[in-house]
Each structure stands twice: as C-alpha cells, then as structure tokens.
Amino acid sequence: MNPKETIEIGDKIVNVLKTIYDPEIPVDIYELGLIYDVLVNDQKQAKILMTLTSPNCPVAETLPKEVEEKVSALEEIDSTEVELTFDPTWTQDMMSEEAKLELGFL
C-alpha cells in the first residue's frame, strides 16, 4: 500500500468515526476528541486508540465495539483493533472548535 492509499483509507476511517455519537452528547466521537490515533498498516489492519469522557461512562463496553464494527465494515479494512486508554485523561479542551460551538462552549 502506498502512502496516498494509506491517507485515503485513514480519511475513510475518520469519516466513519464522525458517524458515531456518544449517546449523552450530541457531537460525534471524533469531534469530541475521543479518538487519539488512527493507524493503518500494509496488511489492511486498522488500530484505533480512543478514550471515553470518563472511566465510568455508561457506554464503556458498547462504544468501542461500535467503533470496531463500523471501521471493520470498510472494504479496505480486513481487521480492526480498538484500544481504550485513559492516558491522557479526556478534557473539554480536546474537543474541536466545531464541537465546542455545537455544545455552546464558545
């Protein structure tokens, strides 16, 4: 896979992530800043490093599974691993300007 293809696949993954919402907050998980990293290797394996708004988040079990299922559904991806981390801890500063505007923080 060449670098251009990797970037294109990464963009497709980001577009998928922008369709997934935290059910308690009307902003997608990408704009909320819950996605720390998106990696794709030559074997068409994706790895998503993400967090939650808090360790006690009620969707702690379901949200990472939803991410894995939706990214794996891309025809360019053969497998997806989602790693959940709380380092660094999520804060409102991690939200995009768009998310802050949507939530009335700007």
* Mean pLDDT metric: 93
Briefly note the structural class of the backbone: alpha+beta
Total helix count? Answer: 3
Distance between the amino and carboxyl termini: 41 Å
Cα-atom radius of gyration: 14 Å
Reading the helices and strands in chain order gives HEEHEH
Unreliable sequence segments: none
Main sheet characteristics: 3 strands, mixed
What does this protein structure show overall?
- The longest helix is centred in the N-terminal third of the chain and has 15 residues, at 3-17.
- The chain has helices at 3-17, 62-72, 97-102, and strands at 35-40, 45-50, 79-84.
- It is globular.
- The protein has a 3-stranded mixed sheet with strand order 1-2-3, covered by helices on one side.
- Strand 1 (35-40) and strand 2 form a beta hairpin.
- It is 30% helix and 17% strand.
